Amino acid sequence: MATTRSGSTGRRRTLERAWERWHQGTGAEDGVRPEILSSWRRSAAHVTDEVDAAPLADEGETRSLFEGSPLSTAVDRLQGALRSAAEDGDLVVAVTDPQTRILWTYGGRVMRGAAEEVNFVAGGRWDEASVGTNALNLALRTDEVSTVFAAEHYAPIVHNWVCWAAPVHDPVTGIQLGVLDLTTTWDRAHPIGTATAQALARLLETAIPATAVPTPPSSEPGAGLHLRLLGAVEAHLDGTRLLLTRRQGEILALLAMHPDGLSLGELHAHLYGDERVSTGTLKSEVSHLRAALGGRLASRPYRLDLPVTTDVDAVRRAVRRGDPRTAVSAYGGDLVPGTSSPFLTELAEYLAVAVRECLLLDPDPQAVLAYAEVVPDAEVVQRALDALGDGAHPARAELTARLAAALR
Length: 408
Prior knowledge:
By secondary structure, the chain is of the alpha+beta class. The protein has helices at 5-23, 34-44, 59-67, 70-89, 109-117, 128-131, 135-142, 192-206, 246-257, 264-272, 279-292, 311-320, 324-330, 342-361, 365-374, 378-388, 396-407, and strands at 92-96, 102-107, 146-149, 161-169, 176-185, 225-228, 234-237, 240-242, 297-298, 303-304, 308-310.
């Protein structure tokens, strides 16, 4: 991959200054993308500037997870092409699971050593709560190809890098399996990096066995509309996945949360807040969404005219009956990741607090371990350990490891 250092040096310096100002509390410069600033804010709640490496998951567990994943077959089939891409461009190629745990990597001569120093290796946890802003996590959150350049990364340990990541989906069910990421040094940034990551991700998808991923119950809703809104946005209409824009997904989420319907003004306020967006733009979005739903979106008020189920409903029901295992099982992460909708942002905060409080009241060890995969929360893990007392328990070792990782 050709070097474009002259075009990248100025951008890198601008971002370094913005990063320093933001961390000093004097505000970031206008040149920082909104999605990066949002990620910095989320990262600040979990990650310190002193983080020197990503936490590592258990080696055996990671190997077992990869071997049981359809991505293993796909990587095996394309290993020659992936290795050539890494060696020719002196890149690290990485493939992750849906929680941003790296399952497989291969690095060029120079980048291999740099990656190992910060645990950008199999088992490395590159979720936002572990290492802050990075392309792998952004690609999973937004379900879109993402680039993070130099000091756009939250952690200084990777300010020297540029990363391009693209989500990988099961070709039959559309379920998000993880991401494919390309990483090198900032001075080797190239405009085709994004396209290359996306092309390799699509190539991986074609190499996944058609019968490899059984469709889980959550994506087999039968008749009607089933929405996954936590951790990612997916919509299945009568069992078939809909291909929607991010904005259409937000509109669906808002209508699903308001089964009695919303007026044009209410929908506009819930979706855009104080943004200066015309009602004509919203009407156009709704029109496209109505077509995707086969006309099953009524107007005056806007309302979904078909049975709707969501993972949000599952979380709420579980929390109300004090069932932490079911609540955590349904809670895949932030509600509509990356949304700027005032209503959805407020609901996301409510759900996060509700699940956390449910676990604090009943710190079921297995539920806490599953929760820690999504949200590294030291207090919740400590509560589970305290509840175990001094007796032997099979979850104690992993809970202790989770606590140490959350406190890093």
